[in-house]
Protein: Src like adaptor 2a
Organism: Oryzias latipes
Amino acid sequence: MTQRRSAKIQRCPVKQASSFYNSPDQMFTASLCGSVVLQENVIVSLHDYPTFEDTEPTMFAGERLLIVSEDGDFMTVRSSTTGRDSYIPTNYTAKVMHRWLFTGISRYKAEELLQKPNNQNGSFLIRESETNRGKNSHSLSILMRTNSSRLNPVKHYRIYRLQNNWYYISPGLTFPSLHCLVEHYSESANGLCCQLTAPCFIQGLDTPRPVPNIIRRPTINWKDISRKRTDSGHSLVSEGLREAITSYLQMTEGDEHSWDT
């Protein structure tokens, strides 16, 4: 009589993993640390094509492509946005696994895709490291926009791999798989520039993410407020605040501003 052995499998945190996907079939089932997750590979365009002036593109960078046929270093692909076919070099595309693991993409192209409008702070991808290409080394690229136009909004972190095939960014925190690394940093920044929020947007695969509305509050006219009085005739602004605002207006706009008393 045979006996079945029950295996105990360590699970990664999955509190926010489901927020990365728009449908159950897109959700990676990699809650199992160290397990191999089977998921359909996606081909993504890295360029607008063609690039000739006065020529309407048949495909756009950052969109999902359907492979129609392959011919050595070239392939025929169909755009998910225009529906048209293009005959292009294979290096015009990148392969994406698990929704965030990009193969065949450079640091520059990673920055270009992450800075597209549908991506928000915390959007990310993992790619092959250019400095250690071919050595199964990776880099994590994260979008973190700031008010400074001089700073590159995409930050890059080297992902190191130990001899036992565990991964880490910070030596004090190691993970048995890239899935576990992603799940951990989706719950806490833990030393990164920000928390991971969603994989890099892919046109034709994801639902467009809403851009938050910017609400501009009306500018306060302090002189008008100073003239308003309560029913008992008292000013709505205290004397101390009136003096501070008067000094500020005089320093910034000249001496012509004064408060009515």
In short: Residues 222-253 form one domain.
